[in-house]
Amino acid sequence: MRKIPIISKLWNRFFPKDQNLLNQPSPPILLSQMQAPEEKEIKLVERLLEFNLGVSIMMWGALVFLVIAVVVWKFDLAGYLSRKDGGSKNAYVVTTKGLNTASQPKLAAENSSSPLFISQFMVEPKKIFEAEPVSLKLTLTGQLKKEVFGFLPYWMMEKADDLNIKLLTDVAYFGLEVDGNGNIVKIDQEGKALSAWAIWNNDKKLEAFIKKAKKNRTRVHLVLKNFSADNISQLVQSPDASYNFINNALYLVNSKSLDGINLDFEYIGTPDKKVIDGFSLLVANLNKELKRQYPKAKLTISTFVDAAANTRLHDVEMLAQSSDALVIMGYDFKVPSSPQAGPIAPMEGYGINLMGFMSSYLEKVASEKLILAVGYYGYDWPVMTSDPNGKVISGDVKAIPYAQLMEATQNTKIQWDEKSQTPWYSYIDRETGKTRMVHFENSRSLGIKYDFINQKHLRGLGIWALGYDGRNTDLLQLINDKFAI
């Protein structure tokens, strides 16, 4: 550094070589005698200072810009994700005729495998029963060796008289909603009676159906549901709300002399341990009081298909101890908002599948406590290509009941996915010219699942939902062939 001329001169001026000079007083220097530094040296120092200042400003500016960019990116990404979940203009549009979208819960991320959507999707019963059936003579051979637990949604009550319940051991009316205080929700935000409550409270068809079921020795249950994470958290962590809920549940069972209760509490995401433990305690207390008042009554809990493998509201080991059975919702692996089409309930393959998740259940819960529920429906996506796992494009996604699928495929080539052991087909929409992809369940894929139920000695079969097969008899025959003695 001292070899640089300007620095060398400055060094020698303040640090002279002759150390004796340090001990001698300096003679006064007149202003007129002072020599001005050369202009080149002054300019060089000024440039050095300017350069250092400029570098400092640039470095600090770059740092501030980086911090701002990261913050903006983070918030923009969060906004983007929330728009996808909330339904932006570019999000998938789902056919939801008759669906109360205001109360519809958000879908879980696809890899969380949370079966939820189909339990909120209403269909048109009239169209289901108008669909041309596949002719098959129904032959019932004997008594069932497994439980067959069918869910009857309130929107299917208008066709309750047409339902064949001879192969049902249990039927559950779906369903009355519960709020965070343990009360039954009876009216909507506009003050109008909710359809599910109106049918429960004053509908002759429901009363007639209950009598028909009892005559057939089919047990009748009531589904109490809650799809709000906030309401679930409030309910299970409040002793007063829990006590109120149990009283309401038992009153409803008593009011129609029912045979049991099914809880369908669907918390999307990962709850706190306090919430998980609170739900387990609520179930234990409900079961204890239910058995005290009605010893033969049954308590079943609907659980996510991945609940034994991941941290969910449902602690399956605890719930199995304080209930009669867990109804595993083994469907909706793909949902309307999925970015790619695919099987709704793959038996194998695809990374996540029924075989894998059921193995997790069987490691924690006795097989006689498990009911595997299957779906009588399919999803129809608009896709970019006819590949069975084609990318979904913006457009309407449809949930199609089994009866309408059978009618639609009478002259269509049905493909078989060996990996998932499920059927699919594609077609061109005449109105839009778009390729559409449909994945669904049929007697072949359901038969494989029924064989699994028998092989693993599960308690039985669940059905979502009764009436979705319309006037078809092949699925009833399949139940008879697989589970009748």
Question: What does this entry look like structurally?
Answer:
There is one protein chain. By secondary structure, the chain is an alpha/beta fold. The protein has 2 domains: 33-91; 94-483, Glycosidases (TIM Barrel, Alpha-Beta Barrel). It is 37% helix and 17% strand. The protein has 13 helices and 14 strands. The chain has helices at residues 5-14, 39-86, 125-130, 195-202, 204-215, 229-237, 239-255, 273-293, 316-321, 354-364, 402-408, 443-455, 474-483, and strands at 93-94, 147-153, 170-177, 219-226, 260-265, 298-304, 325-329, 370-375, 377-383, 396-401, 415-417, 422-428, 435-440, 460-464. The chain has an 8-stranded parallel β-barrel with strand order 2-3-4-5-6-7-8-14, surrounded by 6 helices. The protein has a 6-stranded mixed β-sheet with strand order 1-10-9-13-12-11. Strand 11 (415-417) and strand 12 form a beta hairpin. Helix 6 packs across helix 7. The N and C termini lie far apart (100 Å).
Strand order of the largest sheet: 2-3-4-5-6-7-8-14
Q: What oligomeric state is this?
A: single chain
How large a portion of the residues is in β-strands, by DSSP E?
Answer: 15-25%
Provide the low-confidence segments as ranges. 18-37, 70-115
